[in-house]
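Protocol step 4 of 6: structure prediction from sequence.
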Amino acid sequence: MSTQKVTIDATIDAPVERVWKGYTTPADITQWNFASDDWCCPSAEVDLRVGGTYKARMEAKDGSFGFDLEAVYEEIEPHEALTMAMSDGRKARTTFESAGGKTKVTTTFDAEDQNSIDMQRDGWQAILYNFKRHVEANPVDD
């Protein structure tokens, strides 16, 4: 099986410290980690260290479907990059590039073979845009 890599990105109008916090804090993750308004992320766990785990529960709001995304952090460079290995063996690397008070977030992930590349790209991109909206609407740390 040759794994195709897919890349998505978004530029967020927030400093890299806030973007990093929003991407790695469970309370933030539950607010943005879904591709459409009929889905939600009721729980997230983050053990932000190499070898630590990431877990997020994603569910349709009507209860018709849900799944757990689990991964292990393989690389962490605070405010710069992180790499996760998902439980099915695929990897995702996200980088954070600071420029002029804004942050470009780029994720490259290994595609799976159940859904089309376009569907996967669109889904991951929608989640990243949700993340962008969340961080920009919540600029100050609580």
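Step 5 (inspection) to follow. The longest strand covers residues 66-77.
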